[in-house]
């Protein structure tokens, strides 16, 4: 789900050099454990504190202490995730690596990707990035389509399954129903994390291709209201579920007005 991977299991198994003893609780020991927690967030995030503690064999108190320190340092960040639908209750806390954390591990992957896209454009023209982005999300559609097919024509349920699939791929997604009934009924799909954020900020074709993929998966026109790449707090997609085909042009005009505000 991320472009950089670190084997946290190898980090767990790593031992101090032969002949070297590092007392538990020492600064070196704390730093090593914190690095293990960071690597686990990178490899398995978005993940809860309980999940990380279980992976690393740490007590809840210990893992939360290291998570708090990493969050204060800006290496990781918390995404609040609500359950699908309109269920009440406190949102769950999930940890992901921040942009600063990614940079701290090295951003060679980002520079390589940028260079590759620039060379692709130079070799084949300005439309190359659009084609590349569409191919990337075509693979997503191929994986998600069988899952959404289980919901039949129930667009609300399809949106919920899409949210779950996105979360499994690291997008920290949620689906919330707006208006319980009537023509204004809709689902708001939010994504709190974007694995290709830096590239999408430079190449909006990625966001456009993703929006089109959602539309095709759900079987109706959807509208992107905000994106992380353009400075939004989350990526928000409006999915109308309560209007008829005859109402679609009018509702589309309302969404156009909302986007311009």
Automatic annotation (TrEMBL):
Superkingdom of this protein's organism: Bacteria
InterPro entries: ArsR-like_HTH, Carb_Metab_HTH_regulators, WH-like_DNA-bd_sf, WH_DNA-bd_sf
Compositional bias per record (Basic and acidic residues), positions renumbered to this chain: 245-261
Region (Disordered): 1-35, 238-261
Biased composition (Polar residues): 1-10, 18-27
Name of this protein: ArsR family transcriptional regulator
Organism: Psychromicrobium lacuslunae
């Amino acid at each position: 789900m991320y472009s950089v991977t670190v084997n946290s299991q190898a980090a767990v198994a790593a031992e101090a050099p032969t002949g070297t003893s590092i007392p538990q609780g020492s600064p070196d020991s704390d730093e090593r454990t914190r690095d293990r927690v960071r690597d686990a967030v990178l490899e398995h995030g978005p993940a809860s504190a309980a999940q990380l503690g279980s992976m690393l064999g740490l007590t809840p108190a210990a893992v939360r202490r290291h998570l708090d320190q990493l969050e204060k340092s800006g290496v990781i960040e918390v995404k609040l995730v609500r359950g699908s639908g309109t269920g009440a209750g406190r949102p769950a806390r999930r940890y992901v690596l921040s942009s600063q954390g990614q940079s701290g591990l090295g951003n060679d992957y980002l520079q390589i990707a940028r260079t590759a896209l620039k060379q692709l454009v130079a070799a084949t023209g300005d439309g190359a990035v659009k084609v590349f982005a569409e191919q990337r999300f075509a693979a997503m559609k191929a994986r998600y389509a069988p899952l959404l097919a289980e919901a039949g024509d129930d667009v609300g349920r399809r949106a919920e399954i899409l949210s779950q699939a996105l979360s499994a791929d690291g997008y920290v997604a949620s689906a919330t129903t707006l208006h319980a009934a009537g023509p204004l009924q809709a689902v708001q799909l939010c994504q709190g994390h974007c694995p290709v954020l830096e590239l999408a900020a430079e190449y909006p074709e990625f966001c456009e291709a993703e929006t089109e993929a959602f539309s095709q998966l759900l079987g109706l026109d959807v509208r992107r209201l905000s994106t992380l790449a353009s400075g939004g707090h989350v990526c928000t997609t409006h999915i109308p579920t309560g209007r008829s085909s005859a109402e679609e042009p009018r509702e589309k005009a309302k969404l156009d007005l909302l986007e311009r505000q």
